[in-house]
Amino acid sequence: MNISTIRLPLEPNSWRADFPILSRPVRDGQPLVYLDNAATTQRPRQVIQAIVDTYENHYANVHRGIHWLSDQSTDLFEDARQKISKFINANSEQEVIFTTGTTMAINLVARSWGDANIRTGDEILLTEMEHHANLVPWHQLQERTDCRLRHIPITDDGQLNLATLDTLLTDRTRLVSITHVSNVLGTINPVAEIVARAHAAGAIVLVDAAQSAPHSPLDVQQLDADFVAFSGHKMMGPSGVGVLYGKQSLLEAMPPFLGGGNMIRRVKLDRFEPADLPAKFEAGTPPIVPAIGLGAAIDYLLQVGLQKIHDYEQVLTQYAHETLGRIPEFHSLGPAPERKAGIVSFTMDGIHPHDVAQLLDRHGIAVRAGHHCAMPLHKKLGITASSRASFYFYNTPAEIDQLAAALEDALRVFRRR
Ligand code: PLP
After folding, report:
1. Which atom of ligand 1 lies closest to the CA of 182?
2. Helix%, strand%, coil% for the chain, nearest 5
3. Domains of the chain by start residue, with CATH
4. pLDDT digit string (tens) for 369-396?
5. How far is the CA of 65 from the centre of ligand 1 (A)?
6. Which of 373, 375, 376, 380 is catalytic?
């Protein structure tokens, strides 16, 4: 691929200027090459400004005060919910629950829907490529209910082996909970197909969209997913806020997860009546400013264009595979680039992933090393750790060239030892 002759789906440099941190020198004045976007993304000035503006001009608690400032804060907070609802094409804002992130959203479903619906011997179908956030809540549910956890296996090239689905989906399967995009392999899973097959078998589906919602258009009605979870900080929003989307009929039938203020209609000394959606699942003071910041991030994402982001990251990923693949010691994990999102996890012959990350850091390049909260997947792959470069639309082909050069340098360092 001759990157200089390709017409890119978007021009990263025209957006980079909005991100103050991307022009901040690191380590003895070197430019930052930020390739750890699957862990968390950076924020543009517009999001930072929305946060500052809220604190400086509009901040009060929401849904409580009968005063002018509280009305302003409530309007901004509810505007953010409306933006998110439109962003994912939910049927209504009632279906958008603010959580602290993907982890809490999945835990909410496991505790509330799970405890109410899962009985001994019922089956929950997961996959071998899940993040711990989509494993441990189900382990805990298994401890509470003695249900059975089953897993869709992965193929040698890191895709879901859907040939197994017919036997794995049984009349005991109540829920299928799957990641849309693997945070290690980058695999984009055929979620719509899995949803259709799960529904045909009588199961509902939760989609972990932590690694997809920030990078490509997400239409929950088109997917027909029953629950969808994602995190604000992986899509340029603040940390501390995330979303659980749920179909209204399911959310209405579920008992509240946490108890406290805001989630009630009425409280007596001996009992309570829960509030309507979405308040029923938002006990206590919600993440007011993070939610408003997430609304600003969504405005920004829509300006860039989700389809363009997806298309551009495809080009970056192909280019990364080609460029890094020329290094004989480099081995990427997961499928071919056209089947994956902008996540390139890899191992290097002769260098431990943590050493790779440390040596790259000397060049100002930020990547992640370790198990990336997916220990069972690494075990399946026969490794304990990997290094991971993950992209966003503000990354450039030149940064991939820098990554390749720094990896070559790391090899030279290790050969000298
Ligand atoms: N699911 C996936 C696929 C992820 O990549 C992550 C975070 O890395 C999570 C869930 C958990 O997200 P959070 O830590 O924001 O709750």
Report:
1. 3
2. 45, 20, 35
3. 3-31+305-415 (3.90.1150.10), 48-303 (3.40.640.10)
4. 999 999 999 999 999 999 999 999 999 9
5. 34
6. 373
